[in-house]
Write a structure and sequence with these properties.
Layout: E1 2-5, H1 10-21, E2 26-29, H2 35-43, E3 48-52, E4 55-59, E5 65-70, E6 75-81, E7 87-92, E8 96-100
Parallel strand pairs: 1-2, 2-3
Antiparallel strand pairs: 3-4, 4-5, 6-7, 7-8
Amino acid sequence: MALVTGAAQGIGRAIALALAERGAQVIATDLTPPHETVNKIGANGTGSAKAEGDGVYVISPQGVKIGKILLPEICANLCFGGTRRNRLFMAASQSMYSLYVDVKGANIA
């Protein structure tokens, strides 16, 4: 799994697409919603999530929105943590939010 910030355009978009092409599940985030990037990733069969103004969307490998985590402010960054890597941290403009989920983030040794 890869988290790419600034994925709406430029180098961030290129990195997100390159990682997805290599089989990574990509979480694409940006202050401007990265719709085009997420749509291209979904078309390639890799699941993803994206941060938008009011929360975080979870996207299936088929490119279908399967869930949304609502937040009261803009989410700028996402990452997994915790001893089991199943806690999703969401950094927003003035706050940090976290949520335990039924999946694990990548284990980077």
